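Q: What changes when aspartic acid is included in the input?
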Amino acid sequence: MGTHFCAPGRVFGQILRSETWGTRLRTRMRESCAAGIKMVGMMTRLRSVLYMPFLLTTLCAAHVAVYAAGPAAPNADKAQTHGWAIAIHGGAGESEWEHMDAATASAYHDSLAKALAAGSAVLKGHGKALDAVEAAVKVLEDDPLFNAGRGSAFAADGKNEMDAAIMDGATLAAGSVADVEFTRHPISLARAVMEHTPYVMMVGPGADEFSRAQGLEQQLPSFFFTEMRWQEFAAIMRASGRSVPPRPAGVGPGPMALSEVHGFTHRFGTVGAVARDSEGHLAAATSTGGMQGKMPGRVGDSPLIGAGTYASDRSCAVSGTGVGEYFIRLTLARQVCTLVEQGQTPQQAADRMIHSELPALKGGEGGVIVMAPTGEPVWSSNTLGMFRAKEEEGSGPEIHVK
Ligand code: ASP
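A: The predicted holo structure follows.
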C-alpha cells in the first residue's frame, strides 16, 4: 500500500488494507487528503492556521468513514470481487452415472435446488458464510438421497457412524465430529464443538453425549435408515464375502418399498458446501455417513480439517468427496488452498489436486468444490459425475446432476 498524505488517512488506510475495492479506495483517499492539503494552503494564506489540524483530520476521517461502510473482501487487491456466492455438492461417482434415468436425475436436481436455496437465502439476507454452509448442509442431511444424516451409509456392524466438519475462514475456527450415531444434524454438532468447546474434534460416545448436553435433536437408528442405502450396503457386504448384519432395531424385518431411490445408488454421497458472504468471509462444511461397509471406528477425510474440509479467507474454502483415505494422505483441501496462496487460481489448484495428485495414488477418486476469496465458486472431479450446484450474487442457481 502506498504512503498516504495525512495521519488519519494513514491509520484508516492500514485498517482498510485488505478490504474491498482497496485500490479504488486508496486512490479516493489520496484525492481526499490531497484536497484537504490544498485547502490547508488556501486557509494558511487566510491566516487561519490554528484551525487547520482539526479541519484536515475531519476531512480525511469523513472520507474514510464513507468508504469503510462498504463491503469488505480479503485479497481484493488481487482481483475484482463478485459479491456473495455459494456452492454445494452431493457426492461424486462412476458407473452409476451412466445408468441414471430421467426420474432419478430430476429427484437429485430438486434436492440440490432446495439445499442451494437454503444457503443462498442466508447470504441474500447478508448472513454469514458459516450460517449459509450449515443451512445448506442441514437440508442435504435430512434428504434420504444423500449419504449424510438421514440416508447415511452403514458400518460393517449395521450402524450409522456419521462424520462432519465446519470451518470459519475468517478466524480459522473449526469444529468436527466423527462416528456419531444419534444427532439428526451432525453438521450442527460440529459447529457446537467449534463454538462451545476449546476443541476442534470430538468422536464417538463422547461426542454423542456432548450433543445431548447441547440440546441438539437426537434420533434413533430407524430415523437414519433408508432401504436404498441398506440394500446398497448388503450388496457390498456380500460382494466382499462378509455377512450382512441384522437390520437396525426399530426397522422392519423385510425390505421396505424403494420409492425414494429410483433404482439409483452411488458410492460417494457425502454432502458439502462452501460460501463467501457479503462481508467477504469464507466458510466450508462437509457431512457424511462415510464409506459403505467400513469397519466400525473408521474415520474418513470429511471431518478432518485440511483433508476433506478447509476454509481460510486468505486463500479459499474447500469441501471434498471421494475415497477419504487418499484425501487424508494428500491433506487435499488444505493443499488446494496452499496452491492458491502460491498464486494459482482456485480452478488451477483444484484441477491439479484432483486430476494430477489424487489419481497419482492408485484408487484416488473424487472431487471438490472450492470458493475463491473473490466469490467465484469452482469445482473439479475425476469421476464420471458429481452432484453439484452454485449460485452467485446477481445470477440464478446453476444445478448439475450429470
Ligand atoms: N469422503 C467420504 C469418506 O471417505 C466418502 C464420500 O465422499 O462419499 O468418508
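Observations recorded in class: The chain has two domains: 1-70, 85-400.
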